[in-house]
Amino acid sequence: MGQQIEHGNGKVVFWLITVSLLVAAVMLLWTFIPALLWAGVLSVLLHPWYKRTQQRLEKRKHRDTLASLYVTLFTAFIIIVPLLGFLVVGSIQVYNFASSLVADTPDGKITLHNLATEADVTVVPFLQGLGINDFTLSDYIEKNKSQIVSDIYVPIRDGAKRLVMMIVTLVIAFLTTFFMLRDSHRLLDPVTELMPLPRDSTIAIINKMGATIRAVFYSVVAVAIVQGVLCLIAYAILRVPNPLAWWAITTLFAMIPLVGAPVAYVPAALLLFVTGHPIEAVILLVWGFGIVSNLDNFLRPMFIKFGTNLHMMAIFFALLGGVFTLGPIGLMVGPMLLTLILGMLDVLRERRRIAESETAAG
Predict the structure, then answer these.
(1) Residue 1: helix, strand or coil by DSSP?
(2) What is the pLDDT of residue 119?
(3) Helices (H), the chain
(4) Angle between helices 112-129 and 262-274 (to 10 degrees)
(5) For residues 317 and 338, what is the distance between their CA atoms, to the nearest angstrom?
(6) Is 337 exposed, middle or buried (0-12, 13-18, 19+ CB in 10 A)?
(7) What are the backbone dihedrals phi and psi of residue 146, each rounded to the nearest 5 degrees, phi first?
(8) Greatest mean pLDDT among 134-138, 193-197, 309-313, 336-340
(9) CB 112 within 8 Å of CB 102
(10) pTM, entire model
């Protein structure tokens, strides 16, 4: 009896230590969760390319390391270099533009006062028609200039901090991707052993998750291209200056969850408005919010359904839940978790069916 109690206490202590260690591990890795998730996504997307590169290096020593290094470095180069270039140049341009807006410069320069003066030509008659006769944008900006300046620079500083964190996350993600690709064949056995499922079922679920990641990635690119083309048509018809540049910006931001195409077409509409084209500005906003931005709600689940055979409503809620919970990476993680849950339910149903068959036969 005493030995049983001692054995039971030992099990309790063992599980307490195990849970404590798991909690400590999660706390240590929590900051790097986005980077690890991105590394997992990149590893799945790059794995076919890695296998082909590995075959070409069949006669080379350390071919696993070399293949992983080539694929990771090339991908990092084509993603990080253009992205960093765009972000750095864009940040500098935004900062310079913000500085010129709040600066006291001669007439003809783009400043808040001059933009407000041009906008008053359209706004003041409209407000007077509503019975508001003592309000102009230029007077409002002059009275509240210090607060407006503060409101302009705060998001710029926050954006700079996010840019630094994004760079760190990308570096960690690609470093982890290198090891995941190189050691993928070694990681399969531990994963299948940890899962409380038969090996074949676990591998099938992993393959389905890989197919889901690829389907989500292709859907993101496809929807962004469609949104970019629709906006380009609007930019050209409404005569937005430099429509091709606006198209490129729209397509890029359309790939980013929680950001999307409005980051591009809303400033374009404001540009039309302050340059004396209010009707065109309204048309662009209606086209953007009414057509372009709503494409996400049905096109993306539809594209993912073709690649995964998941129900569209389930995909829709998995996408939204993932994005709202984890940010941009949630776009991949949400459908992955959905695939994992459905795969495990299929296995449990199959086990129950087999058990019922054996009971009936016995």
Answers:
(1) coil
(2) 65
(3) 2-29, 33-56, 63-102, 112-129, 137-143, 145-182, 184-194, 199-238, 243-254, 262-274, 278-287, 295-308, 312-326, 330-361
(4) 80
(5) 10
(6) middle
(7) -65, -40
(8) 336-340
(9) yes
(10) 0.67
